[in-house]
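We append the chain.
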Amino acid sequence: MAIAFLLASTKGTVAVASEPVLKLDSIDPEIALIIQGRRTAAPDLMRKEGLAGLAVAAIVSGDLVWAEGFGTIDGVSRRPVTASTPFSLQSVSKIYTAVAVVNAKARGLLDLDEPITTYLPEFTVNSRYEERPETQMTLRLLLSHRGGLTHEAPIGNNFDGNAQSLPAHFASITDTWLKAPVGERHIYSNLGVDLAGQVLAEVYQAPFQEVLATQLLGPAGLNQTTADPAQIERIDDRAIGHAKGHDKVPVRVPMVPSGGVYASVVDVARFVQLHLSSGRVDGATVVDPAALRQMYVPCCGEWVSYGLGIEVEQVRFGDRQLTVLGHSGRGFGFTASVYWVPEVGFGLIMLANSMDSRLDGRFFRPLQEAVLEAMLGESRSAADGAARDDLTVRPDSQWLRQLAGEYVGTRDVEFALRNGQFGWVLRGNFYPAYFLSERRIRVETPGIRLDCIFRSDGQRDPSWADCETRVGQTMSFSESLAYNGNPSDSKGPNRESWKSILGKYDIRQWGKIVQTVELHVENGYLYLDQYRALGEYRPGLFFLSDGNPWIFDLNQ
């Protein structure tokens, strides 16, 4: 069955074939056997994960050799997922926005290092750290998550689910508070990419989704891709998102530049091929090659594996060190993983209409690593080679006690001091750390490696840690983790004024209670569940250790 899909250029509709792409006889037999094994295993894995629909594509030596859908678009009808079924890409959308930004820069329309107030003169944001922080923000900082911004805005976020206008979402960013000084830390944030999208809208004097369509999607022939919420709602055969505990998931993603793109797996593959061919499509240059190369440079020093809107991993297979580029996304009922290796022309895409599956670790990563090993030889860490006996730094016990404690960010990490040895506590197990310097550690566990640098903001030393976690050989992620406390810390002030706000609070997602948190006092400090409040900045406004603000109406 064919579907009608709106062209990215908004000029009309096109009939799209739904047959799978399968050209395994054109590639190395060993790689073909690996892919065929994953094809066979996919339906059983989907059943185990409770997954309704899945679309997968593989590119080998620059050619699309596999693109196929499995399951159904909604889990209840018989409408099958095909290679042409549109899925929400969630945070993979950030790559598309970043490409549009760097291409505009190549055309001389904007500068990555100019303050964004050059383009958005009315924009402001709240900060505890500096006056007029917006005048220090640049597109380079925003696309590399160095703007200090929080992850969500009050209007149009992962929880409210309201189909707010994109301008209303942008306007509400002004009401947010920075989590860190501009440029200081790598803090993953939707808002930075959303602001970059707003700059594009101002430069081109058109809505962001139209800019993306006319400046990138249309010229690249991505006719099964759109960021236009109205178009998305009109696509009858799009995949329907699923999330545990919710009968219905909102279709519109309010944060359009950072998470609002929908595309079929064959169109995502075409987008990957654009990168593999240095910005060329069908022989014509669509994106400036030098602009793309800018995206692929890690933004900010050691162990931060992120460029401009894209994850950048260094891995080693056989005797070759490779770069793995791409992004993952999860939310609004969808999961997406899109990664490619320029040096060998290999790319892999997985789109699923569930935000609760574990197929990334059980299907996507094993397939990616198996193909690369078949191409190049056995995998090993690109950073291997330093013998543990050579890591002779031995910090004193007082410094180790300062380092110990809980650190929080996108996840919680506990460092402890046991029998005089410093290490990482993971799922109840203690793994010793090896010190590369007084502030740099490495911890190795079965299948996971953690590297951290401890830093100070001048208030406490350390006050946060920049960490990179590597899972297997082709998956790693960077994060800034804030110090959250240690049972050995001195007792806090336990202020009388806190009593009026203590108690339980409900967190709602899409109108439904999904979590209840409790504000309580522990060791004289105010905590929201496990997150310590650093103090009351002004009446009713608190900041947690991870930098997020919590505002209470003291008049209620």
